[in-house]
Amino acid sequence: MEYYQKFIKNEKLRRWMVLAFLVVMLYFLRSILPLTLLTFVFSYLAYRFVSFVERKIKLPGKISGFILYGVILFLAYLGITEYIPVLVNQVTHLINAVNKFYQSNNHGGSTLMDSIYTLFKEYNLADKIQSSLGTLVNYLTSFGKGLLIVLFAFLMSFFFTIDRKETNKFSKLFLKSDFAWFFEDTYYLVCKFFTGFGVVLETQFIIAVVNTLLTIVALSFMGFPELLSLGVMIFLLSLIPVAGVLISCVPLSIIGYSIGGIKDVILVLLIIALIHALESYVLNPHLMAHKAKLPMFYTFVILFLGEHFFGVWGLIVGIPIFNFALDLLGVKEIPIKNIKK
């Protein structure tokens, strides 16, 4: 019992042990990490919006929460009903155009088609394309699971947003239990990490807004239809670092091809590449460095290593993990209001 009391009084050792326990738990629960992170992302953004509305226009949190999620559902419905039919139509036109091109060059005497056939034979491109199609089918299969995770995280964040005061009140009961020290340390560590996580989310949200506005302006000059639904799609994909930009290239290129042919496809890809370069080399490092209070050199290195080791999620959690480690090591403290030290 004496050792137990000494352990509880040793705050630094105690928190390192709690952190080790949480890391082990996360390892065993790693299959639900995407759901956990997405729930936090949705809840954090909704919480900031509801808090802002409460401060500015004194609208109750539950009402503003219902309004926010209602608008999101309406925009999702608009995107599905307005955008998907357009995309299906454009894909049909693209398939017909490719079929006509193939038939017009399938009568022999075409140097271009002879070169394509030779390339297929030499490099066995048919098998490679078939393998790629199999990979695509696997991605589409996992897409359904990913969509289910997104919907469940969206639902959980909705319940948290409209019931956040009652949830916080109930959660504080753990801080008065017999193992209050464990829950206090858990609360402390989680707040430290998710404060840095929130900074990254705010930055990515700003980048998504800028990216969407620039892309929509460029597409309007090119005569793209359904700009509102395209804007919703671009904004949602822009919230996903790197991968979102690549995914958006596919439907935009298809629509561009149906409007102006291969020239518009090249123009769309150039526009996306320029905006992505602006995002990656100017906006992202500058905003991340400013928000996280890190030098741009460190920000570049962390983003690169995070993407290398953890993929897309590394771009999101890299900065929070680095700041969290600096705080634990006593190098740089993460300031948090209303937290026990």
Task: Give keywords.
341 residues, mainly alpha, 2 domains, 85% helix, AI-2E family transporter, transmembrane, membrane, transmembrane helix, AI-2E-like
β-strand number: 0
User: What's the gyration radius in Å?
Assistant: 25 Å
- In percent terms, what proportion of residues is strand? under 5%
Could you say how many structural domains there are in total?
Answer: 2
Structural class: mainly alpha
Helix content: over 70%
Overall residue-averaged pLDDT value:
75
Subcellular location: Membrane
Transmembrane segments: 16-47, 59-80, 139-160, 181-199, 205-224, 236-259, 265-284, 296-322
Protein name: AI-2E family transporter
Organism: Lactococcus muris
Question: What does it look like?
Answer:
There is one protein chain. This protein has two domains: about 25-100 and about 145-165, no CATH class; about 175-340, no CATH class. Helices cover about 85% and strands about 0% of the residues. The relative contact order is 0.09. The chain is built from 13 helices and no strands. The mean pLDDT is about 75. The protein is mostly helical and about 350 residues long. Helix 8 (about 180-220) packs antiparallel against helix 13 (about 310-330). The radius of gyration is 25 Å and the shape is globular.
